[in-house]
């Protein structure tokens, strides 16, 4: 007896090990992914063969495996293919539901490649439903993703779909242009199917436009490719298109001939589709399954015939169980139908909202690029305004002209400040502001800001008080330029709205974790205050207290919006409390990392502070690379006034050749020029001259990144429009450095 127990124990152990081993193999991520991929591939194969129900089965199996392993990427792909299948079998509402699930999953994991494909299928669904403008939105969203990911074949296909949509809208001119792009892309990548389809669609378009010769040429070329590659659907459509063209030119014999070919091929495709239709196969499959279960039950009952009581009991239980399961199935079926109907509208709306969000994001990006272009284009003529006003003031104007010129200079400077503010808020909104942490002395930095703003404060009879927590260290690692800008904006704001009063600046610690201090900065004044109504939206762009305040105190309303954006970038928060006629307190909290390293000393001189007469300017030669004729003239006059000679060229290619042929001390290089840009020209120069001083003379835009100027090899940047005295000092500084190098050598 004990021996039997041992055998049983061994068998159980072996069974347990087998199950454990099987479970380990099944849970291997690579094997799971292979199983999912295999079923997805099989589904695609069955889809091509018109075996829709078999395709559906493979997708359902793949979905179970993907959901079990929480494989979000595969889940998104499976739902997208389901949507495509449901579109083919004319279940558009179910297709929308599946595609919404696919898009939701793909957006979570940023699967842009497959997200574009889902948008494309969404467009196909809306095109089938004759919702043409929704279809166009979906195709444009897909096109954007394919361009980002460099998916040229998918891009060609979605361009073709976009063109077909314009054909449905009878906008044949637009359709021709779009399909021409699709055809060019397909020919470039040798994508035969898209190429064939595009050519046949071109045939339809030129037929509608009345150019029958081109229509036949394109359609016949498309037919040849379809025949060679056995593209049955495209071939069938091509026969119909050619038939319609011959009908239009009244060649009825050939029209009938191609129409007969179309009908014959179309009938064979339709028959094949009907034989393999999802509903018929599903019904047959369920009947077969039910028959197999019935046969099983009969066999079990026959085996239990020896024990009649047990057989009877099994029969009763089986019947009861089948009845209960049938009722449950019917109930679930009805509930599922109700749920599907009520959710269809929600899924459709969800899809529309996703498309709307994509459109909003595109609009925001377009706005950012537009503002960037506008600010750049404004800064270029401003260079002329500020440059000419400075030159005229230096040329002994008549006494009655001096005030006018000073007003012109003031207006130019004010406009430049406004443009700079727009550029900064644009960069913040476009997430193109980089954090540049460095060690610095916080207390010293704020003291310098207070000293810089003290003259403005004294003009309004204001006293500034600075309180720095005595227990707080002074050296931190952070982006000191952004902190300075925040404080300058807030203190400047308080100065502007306070007369005969006080401003208090306080800094103290509110939290400390390891080396990270969360500091609170307060800027309090006893000025005019802000109403509660205006406090609600004061951090929005172009928002001010009122029109009267705007007229009296000036400003653009961008300062506080910039402050809010910079504090968000520094992972902080800003608050305001204020009362009319009593004053305002702005306070913000940001994390700063403590460091024992003192502030780095700046070795490089920003401006020349020596005696210009000590510099030998006799043989100094400067090359100005600038395409704007007015800017050329102004820069040349400034250099002449500085006793410096210069050559002028208006493009990058000529600049490189001039530098190779001549010896220059300094190059003033514009960035945005026709032909090669200043960046590319500088890179070419650096290939043969590493030491030459090259200044980037540019109106910086949102697209410009400072590190790119360093990588290109520029010595420094002079933003346009510049202040003349700063420009002169930078040039003198560079010339002094060149002299030192020559002396050392």
From TrEMBL:
Pfam families tied to this protein: HATPase_c, HisKA, Response_reg, TPR_12
Recorded catalytic activity of this chain's protein: ATP + protein L-histidine = ADP + protein N-phospho-L-histidine
Residues carrying 4-aspartylphosphate: 670
Enzyme class name: transferase
InterPro entries referenced in this protein's UniProt entry, alphabetically: CheY-like_superfamily, HATPase_C_sf, HATPase_dom, His_kinase_dom, HisK_dim/P_dom, HisK_dim/P_sf, Sig_transdc_His_kin-like_C, Sig_transdc_resp-reg_receiver
Residue ranges crossing the lipid bilayer per the database entry: 310-333
Sequence ranges of the TPR repeats: 196-229
Domain Histidine kinase: 373-594
Coiled-coil features, chain-numbered ranges: none
Any one Gene Ontology molecular-function term assigned to this protein's record: phosphorelay sensor kinase activity
This protein's UniProt keywords: Membrane, Phosphoprotein, TPR repeat, Transmembrane, Transmembrane helix
EC number: 2.7.13.3
Keyword Calcium annotated: no
CDD domains: HATPase_EvgS-ArcB-TorS-like, HisKA, REC_hyHK_CKI1_RcsC-like
Keyword ATP-binding attached: no
Record-annotated Response regulatory domain positions: 621-735
Domain of life: Bacteria
Record protein name field: histidine kinase
Native source species: Flavivirga rizhaonensis
Organism classification: Bacteria, Pseudomonadati, Bacteroidota, Flavobacteriia, Flavobacteriales
């Amino acid at each position: 007896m004990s021996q039997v127990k041992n055998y049983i124990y061994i068998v159980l152990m072996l069974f347990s090990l087998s199950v454990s081993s099987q479970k380990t193999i099944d849970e291997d991520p690579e094997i799971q992914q292979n199983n999912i991929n295999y079923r997805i591939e099989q589904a695609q194969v069955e889809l091509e063969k018109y075996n829709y129900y078999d395709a559906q089965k493979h997708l359902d199996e793949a979905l179970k495996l993907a959901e079990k392993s929480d494989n979000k990427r595969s889940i998104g792909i499976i739902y997208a293919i389901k949507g495509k299948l449901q579109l083919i079998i004319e279940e558009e509402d179910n297709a929308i539901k599946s595609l919404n699930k696919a898009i939701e999953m793909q957006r979570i994991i940023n699967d842009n490649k497959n997200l574009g494909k889902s948008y494309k299928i969404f467009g196909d669904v809306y095109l089938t439903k004759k919702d043409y403008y929704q279809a166009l939105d979906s195709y444009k969203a897909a096109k954007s993703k394919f361009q980002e990911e460099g998916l040229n074949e998918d891009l060609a296909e979605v361009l073709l779909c976009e063109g077909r949509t314009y054909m449905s809208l009878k906008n044949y001119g637009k359709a021709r242009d779009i399909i021409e792009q699709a055809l060019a892309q397909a020919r470039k990548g040798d994508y035969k199917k898209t190429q064939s389809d595009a050519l046949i669609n071109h045939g339809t378009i030129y037929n509608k436009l009345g150019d029958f010769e081109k229509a036949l040429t394109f359609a016949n070329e498309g037919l040849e490719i379809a025949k060679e590659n056995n593209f049955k659907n495209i071939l069938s459509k091509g026969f119909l298109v050619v038939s319609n063209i011959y009908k239009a030119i009244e060649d009825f014999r050939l029209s009938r001939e191609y129409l007969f070919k179309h009908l014959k091929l179309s009938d064979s495709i339709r028959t094949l589709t009907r034989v393999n239709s999802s509903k018929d196969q599903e019904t047959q499959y369920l009947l077969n399954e039910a028959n197999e279960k019935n046969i099983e039950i009969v066999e079990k009952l026959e085996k239990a015939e020896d024990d009649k009581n047990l057989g009877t009991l099994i029969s009763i239980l089986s019947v009861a169980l089948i009845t209960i399961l049938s009722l449950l199935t019917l109930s679930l079926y009805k509930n599922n139908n109700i749920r599907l109907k009520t959710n269809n509208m929600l899924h459709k709306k969800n899809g529309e909202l996703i498309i709307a969000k994509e459109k909003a994001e595109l609009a925001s990006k377009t706005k950012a690029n537009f503002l960037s272009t506008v600010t750049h284009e404004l800064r270029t003529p401003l260079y002329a305004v500020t440059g000419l006003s400075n030159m005229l003031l230096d040329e002994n104007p008549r006494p009655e002209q001096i005030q006018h010129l000073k007003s012109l200079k003031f207006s130019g400077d004010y406009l430049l400040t406004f443009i700079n503010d727009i550029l900064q808020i644009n960069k913040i909104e476009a997430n193109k502001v980089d954090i540049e942490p460095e060690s610095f002395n916080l207390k010293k930095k704020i003291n310098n800001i207070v000293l810089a703003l003290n003259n403005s404060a004294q003009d309004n009879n204001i006293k500034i008080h600075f309180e720095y927590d005595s227990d707080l260290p002074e050296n931190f690692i952070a982006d000191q330029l952004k902190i300075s800008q925040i404080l300058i904006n807030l203190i400047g704001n308080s100065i502007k709205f306070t007369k005969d009063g006080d401003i208090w600046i306080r800094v103290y610690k509110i939290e400390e974790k390891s080396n990270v201090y969360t500091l609170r900065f307060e800027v309090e004044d006893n000025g005019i205050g802000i109403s509660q109504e205006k406090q609600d939206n004061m951090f929005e762009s172009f928002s001010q207290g009122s029109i009267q305040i705007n007229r009296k105190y000036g400003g653009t309303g961008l300062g506080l919006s910039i402050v809010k954006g910079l504090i968000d970038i520094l992972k902080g928060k800003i608050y305001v409390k204020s009362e009319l006629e009593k004053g305002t307190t702005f306070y913000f909290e940001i994390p700063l990392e403590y460091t024992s390293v003192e502030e780095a000393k700046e070795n490089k001189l920003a401006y020349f502070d020596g005696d210009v007469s000590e510099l030998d300017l006799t043989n100094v030669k400067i090359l100005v690379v600038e395409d704007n004729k007015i800017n050329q003239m102004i820069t040349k006059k400034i250099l002449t006034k500085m006793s410096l000679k210069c050559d002028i060229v208006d493009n990058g290619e000529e600049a490189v050749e001039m530098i190779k042929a001549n010896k220059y001390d300094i190059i003033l290089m514009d960035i945005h020029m026709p032909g090669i840009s200043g960046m590319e020209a500088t890179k070419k120069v650096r290939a043969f001259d590493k030491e030459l001083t090259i200044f980037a003379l540019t109106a910086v835009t949102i697209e410009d990144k400072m590190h790119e100027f360093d990588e290109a090899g520029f010595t420094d940047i002079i933003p346009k429009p510049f202040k003349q005295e700063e420009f002169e000092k930078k040039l003198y500084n560079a010339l002094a450095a060149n002299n030192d190098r020559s002396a050392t050598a």
